[in-house]
Amino acid sequence: MDPLGAGLCANCQHGRRLRNPRGSVFQRCERARNDKNYLAYPPLPVRVCPGYEEQASAESEDPSPGGGS
Ligand code: SF4
Question: Which of 1, 19, 20, 31 has the least CB density, counted as fewest CB within 10 Å?
């Protein structure tokens, strides 16, 4: 889901969704910590990004290897 309209950042492994004490939600790029080519808070939605890497979705993995009792 992408309720913020963040585009690629919404399911990028470098994206972090932060909420401030007022309840506002922000999309942060963790690549910006070490790479000046990235903005910590890029204008959204991000449609094209060379640093995009899809999040590994552990929830879609088989939950019980060898199990099934
Ligand atoms: S690497 Fe690109 S797509 Fe990923 S969080 Fe940063 S700006 Fe968004």
Answer: 1
For residue 30, is it within any domain? yes
Domain count across the chain: 1
For ligand 1, the distance from its centroid to the CA atom of residue 65, given in whole angstroms, is: 32
CA of 69 to the centre of ligand 1 (A): 41
The answer to the question of residue 67 being in a domain is no
7 lines ligand 1 (CB under 6 A): no
Spacing, Cα 5 to ligand 1 middle (Å): 13
Alpha carbon of 50 to those of 6, 53, 56: distances in Å? 16, 9, 18
> How far, in Å, CA of 50 to CA of 37, rounded?
10
pLDDT in tens, 30-56: 999 999 999 999 999 999 999 999 998
Q: pTM above 0.70?
A: yes
